[in-house]
Design a protein that fits this description.
The chain has 247 residues and is an alpha+beta fold. The protein has helices at 3-16, 51-59, 88-94, 97-104, 109-119, 130-133, 144-156, 161-176, 229-244; strands spanning 22-27, 32-36, 68-70, 84-86, 187-193, 204-211, 218-225.
């Protein structure tokens, strides 16, 4: 299959979804970008999708990641019953809000700004809170293509020890965390954010899939109106698998 037919096929499949998935698909070897995201330049909250970059910021001023016990709703987590004791990789895989609320509160703002500069993300507003950095409340708004490019840089930096930890957590996310519905050998992260559409739905789901883990060649950033990031990961994984035979 030629690269042109590849991108035409993926565009047709995404457009056939109801409602259509918004997506950006980067073919890493060619650096060719395909898109079906009409408002991709708009700033939106991606929910928990940017949590990997908080880990990188935290590690700039700390020697080790914390262990946190998640008690669910009482800890501010999305999972009512809680995740129990969480170390860094399971916490990223589960997108545990209790863990990341604790971690974000300890992040040095200058360190976070330096990570934003390195990965070319828009820094959070000066008056923003750690809760928004992890995707709660107003979130940490970005436009779509810089987010995709930031994850591309993450893969490029995989020899960095902290990035290696992050990618281990994202691989666990795809295997048995919030991205497991993708059912692919990939790095994954999901996010669920307040709906940015009119009229608003209950939420919008976001997922990033980086396939495969041994030699990444595809990065897919997908968004679905009116659902969760976990569900969006499943939709994106199904389409990639049925089109290209990936496993």
């Amino acid at each position: 299959m030629t690269r042109r037919s590849f991108h035409l096929q993926i565009a047709a499949l995404f457009a056939a979804a109801s409602p259509p998935l918004r997506y950006l698909l980067l073919d890493i070897p060619s650096q060719q970008l395909s898109a079906n995201w009409p408002d991709s330049h708009s700033l939106v909250s991606f929910g928990s999708l940017l949590k990997p970059f908080l880990l990188i910021a935290y590690a700039k001023t700390h020697d080790r990641f914390p262990e946190v016990t998640c008690y669910g709703t009482a800890s501010g987590c999305w999972l009512p019953k809680g995740h129990g004791k969480q170390t860094v990789c399971p916490a990223l895989a589960n997108s545990c809000n209790a863990y990341f609320l604790t971690l974000a509160a300890r992040i040095d703002r200058a360190a976070l700004d330096s990570v934003c500069l390195e990965y070319q993300l828009s820094p959070p507003a000066t008056a923003s809170t750690p809760a928004s950095w992890i995707g709660l409340k107003e979130g940490w708004p970005q436009s779509a293509e810089p987010v995709l490019r930031a994850f591309r840089r993450l893969v490029q930096n995989r020899s960095n020890p902290t990035v290696a930890v992050v990618l281990t957590g994202m691989e666990l996310c795809a295997r048995k965390g919030t991205g497991k519905a993708a059912a692919l050998d990939c790095f994954a992260k999901t996010g669920t954010a307040p709906c940015s559409h009119t009229p608003p739905a209950e939420g919008d789901g976001f997922a990033i899939l980086i396939y495969p883990t041994d030699a990444p060649r595809l990065i897919l950033l997908a968004a679905q109106h009116g659902t969760t990031g976990a569900h969006t990961a499943g939709l994106a994984g199904d389409l990639l698998r049925s089109s290209f035979g990936v496993r």
